[in-house]
Design goal:
The complex is a heterodimer of chains A (394) and B (130). Chain A is of the alpha/beta class. Chain A contains 13 helices and eleven strands. In chain A, helix 7 packs across helix 10. Chain B is mainly beta. Chain B is built from one helix and seven strands. At the A-B interface, helix 5, helix 6 and strand 5 of A face helix 1, strand 3, strand 4 and strand 5 of B. Chain B: Pfam families: OB_ChsH2_C (PF01796).
Chain lengths: 394, 130
């Protein structure tokens, strides 16, 4: 750790709960959420009655009825001092934790349950759930009319732009996907654990060229919940606290206009600056990273956007082993969105908590004094980051 | 999504989109531009980001360059049999627009290539190599 400004955390994650993660459509998001919430309460050694705040986050492509405020009744919660649904797409998970920490710091509330739940996998897979417009151009109906469909369509434009700017090719994407798979092999809960062979990668079908099947997240049905507490009360429970040392949001104002590069500006450059400035830290302060990485290109863009390497060098950074098991900057240590499971912002949050607690088993990173966790949504229009540590004082 | 893809724009289509498509069908591509004269804005703008005045449709030259592109290998609607290529075109006036590449089977498109508006007969704006 190399943090210029000494600081003491005021809040920590003290509970982590998850539902079963499934590729079968046998349960609603709401039912998964109840399982995860009750799991988190139990994990924290609390009673349901001790929870006085609830923050919800559903998939941006689902209606509010999928995860309504009524979830508080499903869990049997009593009177609450904080309740809201956070809607900032993939950056919401970290934002929930940030708002919980801020509310606790302000004396508004003591124990906040934060939950994300989704059930995109239907009888015919998850493809239908994601075949919607992201409205990249900003004219209602325009994207659909012109066949620009799905997040994959949007991120394919990012990849092609990245290839052009830096002279990269599909080998860069393969390296990112293969690195995540190496971590997944060490994670018994990851869904895709077989090493990713280069021939197999290149033979996999196009989803939207230049993105292949193995460049894309592996969706599951399920939920993850965490409980945020004041740091003063964080050691009361059975598990080691995950101290929250800083947050940064960054929502890019880049437009689809000459001079802007929204294809590769992830918002990391803004969120990272806000986070690092608050900590008095540089990227070198971090021992490991859990990136929001629904597509292989996004780990490359994150490494570059947060300043772990120079623009255009992300793929070489991965190929050289820096982020892989045994590397100097372990990243996506559970296998990330591509190889472990895709539950939007909660996938990286969950894995960061496991690592800080030292519960990673075979995949435990050797040093976890300070970890970076990220989330983003839209085609990288909404971005959040946080710094986590097993130490209250850094 | 069928009703939104009719040849003739219908009332349920965003009026700005309807007007862009109506004029495109006559051979005139438009972009959004500041009514007070600041110049072109991106297609998502509802006011001029420079002065806050309303934006209006103004004709563009129809010339541009490929900013990025992607190739769809599965069909999403009946008018676009797969594979088809979506171009993100940067118009020479500045805005970027998603259009369909009119030239499948020809020389492969590349980022940076010059392209030109080639028509919108079926309610889909297409560009071809310049
Ligand atoms: Zn103006």
């Amino acid at each position: 750790m190399n943090v210029a400004r000494k600081r003491s955390a005021t809040a920590a994650v003290i509970g982590l709960g998850e539902s079963t993660f499934s590729r079968k459509s046998d349960k609603t998001a709401r039912a998964h959420a109840v399982d995860a919430c009750l799991g988190a309460v139990s994990d924290a050694g609390l009673k349901v009655a001790e929870i006085d705040g609830l923050l919800l986050n559903r998939s941006p492509i689902e209606p509010s009825s999928v995860l309504p405020l009524h979830l508080k009744r499903d869990i049997g919660l009593g009177d609450l001092s904080l309740l809201a649904s956070i809607e900032a797409e993939g950056s919401s998970a970290i934002q929930m934790i940030q708002y919980a920490a801020l509310a606790i710091g302000a004396g508004m509330v003591e124990k906040v349950l934060c939950v994300f739940a989704d059930a995109p996998v239907g009888a015919t897979g998850a493809g239908d759930a994601y075949s919607i417009s992201m409205n990249l151009i900003g004219l209602d109906g325009w994207d659909e009319r012109h066949g620009l469909i799905g997040a994959t369509g949007g991120f394919a434009l990012s990849v092609q732009r990245y290839f052009y700017l830096y002279g990269a090719d599909s080998n860069a994407l393969f390296e990112a996907a293969a690195a995540d798979r190496e971590w997944a092999a060490l994670n018994p809960k990851a869904f895709l654990r077989k090493p990713l062979d280069k021939d197999e990668y290149f033979a996999s079908r196009w989803i939207v060229e230049p993105l292949r099947l193995f460049d894309c997240a592996y969706p599951v049905n399920g939920a993850v919940a965490v409980i945020v507490s004041s740091a003063d009360r964080a050691t009361d429970g059975p598990n080691p606290p995950v101290y929250l040392h800083g947050f940064g949001q960054g929502h890019s104002g880049a437009r689809n206009f000459a001079g802007d590069e929204p294809e590769i500006q992830t918002g990391a450059e803004i969120a990272g600056r806000n986070l690092f400035d608050g900590l008095g830290a540089t990227p070198r302060a971090f021992d490991f990273c859990e990136f929001y990485n629904p597509f292989s290109i996004t780990t490359i863009l994150a490494l570059e956007g947060y300043g772990f390497c120079k623009p255009g060098e992300g793929a070489d950074f991965i190929a050289d082993g820096a982020t892989r098991p045994g590397g100097k900057l372990p990243a996506n240590t559970g296998g990330g969105h591509l190889s472990s499971y895709y539950l939007q912002g909660m996938t990286p949050v969950h894995e960061a908590i496991v690592q800080i607690r030292g519960q990673g088993g075979e995949r435990q990173a050797p040093s976890t004094n300070l970890g970076l966790v990220t989330g983003f949504g839209g085609r990288m229009e909404y971005h959040s980051a946080m710094a986590v540590s097993p130490h209250r004082d850094i | 999504m069928g009703s939104r893809l009719d040849d003739e724009p219908t009332k349920d289509v965003n009026p700005v989109v309807s007007e862009i498509l109506r004029r495109a069908k006559t051979g005139e591509l438009c972009c959004l531009s500041c009514a007070a004269g600041c110049g072109a804005t991106d297609y998502a703008a509802r006011i001029c980001p420079l002065c806050g005045k309303p934006v209006e449709l103004r004709p563009v030259s129809g010339r541009g360059r490929i900013h990025s592109y992607s190739v769809f290998h599965a069909p999403f609607n009946s008018k676009l049999p797969a594979p088809y290529t979506v171009l993100l075109v940067e118009l020479e006036e500045g805005p970027r627009l998603a259009v369909v590449f009119d030239g499948e089977g020809g020389p492969p498109q590349k980022v940076g290539d010059a392209v030109v508006f080639s028509g919108a007969d079926d309610g889909i704006v297409r560009f071809s190599m310049a």
